[in-house]
Amino acid sequence: MSLRLTGLFVVFACLAPLLSHGIAIDQEFDDPAKAELYERLNEEVRCLVCQNQTIGSSNAPLAADLRREVREQVDAGMSEAEIKTFLTDRYGDFVLYKPRYDGPALLLWVAPGLLLLFGLVMLIRSLRRRASLELTDATGDDA
Amino acid sequence: MTRYLIPIVIFGLLIVVFTIGLGRDPTFVPSPLIGKTAPAFELPLLSDPENLVTDAELRGQVWVLNVWATWCVGCRQEHATLNRIASLGTVPIIGLNWKDDHALAEEWLEKLGNPYVATGFDGDGRVAIDWGVYGAPETFLIDASGTVLYRHISPMTMDTWQTEFVPRIRAAKESS
Question: What is the mean pLDDT of residues B92-108?
Fold first, then answer.
């Protein structure tokens, strides 16, 4: 790729997020806290027809319906937890990009830590064994 | 010996897990509604907007809810099958016309036949959200007490109907 093409690519790549962001913003909230919650939910709720997009980044009719639903509930003063429960009651945990800290999803959260712990234990064990082997080798040489 | 066996066993287990994982359809989302009470709804009839179709009037019988729209290719594909199932008369099929054009939807039923005992017109998709609908066609099975028994996503086939719906319908009718 020539330098100019690369430059062009970089420019477009930088513009792309702006483009995708533009879809979700349709009208402003009076309360900045509500606006912030709406924006955050737009980034955290999955559009199920276009599964690798959030409702904030999708143009699908279902995403628009879900944004409307979220907007109305935010407007009505419902909390983030209440809105998320509303969505998972209907669409399951999959609708949330960030799994909750309970149920089977808990395994997802603790698995990396458990695996790391397991690896460390194995590492220490093998290091100790090696150390004791070297020790017996050394004593063997002495004899 | 076990030292070499353990990694091989772990590797074997991973192969099994990944093979099962690869065989699953990643676009399939299980419905959290199964085993729960069907969401309540009151929708104007497609054929007669002055009158409503409600979940309450369907209580006491096993019924099927089919989500469809004229913009949905899979719905066109399954329509003949639905007509056939309706002609068998096992259970009533209720249509949920999802985010559709009213005139086009009426024309569709006139042209292709009407397998539904009633069709609710859900123009803004609110009832569909309550049912966790994300892609038409979807077909739900509801028992006499109003509990959702099963959901099928993607076009209905005679095979799916025979293997997934008929046994459940039989069991539901026997228990009620």
Answer: 95
Architecture per CATH, domain B33-175, reads as 3-Layer(aba) Sandwich (3.40)
ipTM of the complex: 0.81
Per-residue CA distances from B111 to A87, B93, B104, B105 (Å): 37, 18, 10, 10
Q: Flag whether residue A65 sits within 8 Å of chain B, measured between CB atoms.
A: yes
Q: Across the interface, do A94 and B124 touch by the CB < 8 Å criterion?
A: no
Q: Of chain B residues 8-37, which have a CB less than 8 A from chain A?
A: 26-27, 29-33
Cite the DSSP H helix spans in chain A.
Answer: 3-21, 32-44, 61-75, 80-91, 105-142
A vs B, Cβ pairs < 8 A, gives: 40
Chain B residue with minimum CA distance to A90? B132
Q: Which of these CATH numbers, 3.40.30.10, 3.40.50.300, 1.10.8.640, 3.90.78.10, describes A1-98?
A: 1.10.8.640
Q: How confident is the model over B36-86, as pLDDT tens digits?
A: 999 999 999 999 999 999 999 999 999 999 999 999 999 999 999 999 999
- Higher-scoring residue by pLDDT: B99, B23: B99
Percent of chain B beyond pLDDT 70?
99
Question: Any idea what DSSP says for residue A42?
Answer: H
Cα B167 to Cα A15, B51, B150, distances in angstroms: 54, 33, 11
Alpha-carbon distance of A112 to A99, in angstroms, equals 15
